[in-house]
Amino acid sequence: xxxxxxxxxxxxxxxxxxxxxxxxxxxxxxxxxxxxxxxxxxxxxxxxxxxxxxxxxxxxxxxxxxxxxxxxxxxxxxxxxxxxxxxxxxxxxxxxxxxxxxxxxxxxxxxxxxxxxxxxxxxxxxxxxxxxxxxxxxxxxxxxxxxxxxxxxxxxxxxxxxxxxxxxxxxxxxxxxxxxxxxxxxxxxxxxxxxxxxxxxxxxxxxxxxxxxxxxxxxxxxxxxxxxxxxxxxxxxxxxxxxxxxx
Length: 247
Ligand code: SAM
Prior knowledge:
Layout: E1 5-7, E2 10-11, E3 15-19, H1 20-29, E4 37-42, E5 45-55, E6 62-71, E7 79-84, H2 88-100, E8 105-110, H3 116-139, E9 147-148, E10 152-153, H4 154-159, E11 165-169, H5 178-189, E12 196-200, H6 208-216, E13 220-222, H7 231-246
The structure holds S-adenosylmethionine.
S-adenosylmethionine binds near residues 171, 201, 204 and 230.
């Protein structure tokens, strides 16, 4: 599991300081004490750090940490996008944007309403998708490149063991929002970053039997609002919501 990452407002070579909401959360909710360990981003680099001092309120909360060792930075977002294959040009655009947004893995799946010829050609397209992700990772100065899994039938993906909270973007869902489920996952993950799997349907949407399959496999159906988004728009919107919760 990826430890939660705190983004320092102030830092120097040896220390970093959190103020504002982050300091409040660490001080009051997590009751941070000197000696508590944390991962801190200071100046775009990630450090393993240790709390040195905690000040609550008066005039504002502040947590000072000693920077112990620089870490290899992992994917900014511990998110796997399970994307039903759809028109390749749009899908490739989504792969590039999802990479810029920090996705850790993209798992293309063949859904019931994936156009037949696209499903048949997807396996041969995966290498090109990996090149696109690599270019986008370099351009956005990521220190890692997202994994592009080999396309597989949706049912195989759903049967695979869960690697975290599994969320299906369901355009007909009206009560549960993506933000609510992400915040619940954060609560249960405590100091750690929750691992999330987000499934996005093809242009024709999920078939009824797929919705039932998601449900029996414990995927939470969530809404991105009342409008119907293109799959590539839904991918970006979902990553933006998750990033706004986690970062
Ligand atoms: N079947 C839809 C329709 O009624 O036209 C089209 C599916 S939409 C183009 C592709 C996928 O994007 C959906 O299967 C869903 O995963 C996601 N999506 C689009 N809009 C959404 C919304 N408002 N809430 C949640 N997911 C959405």
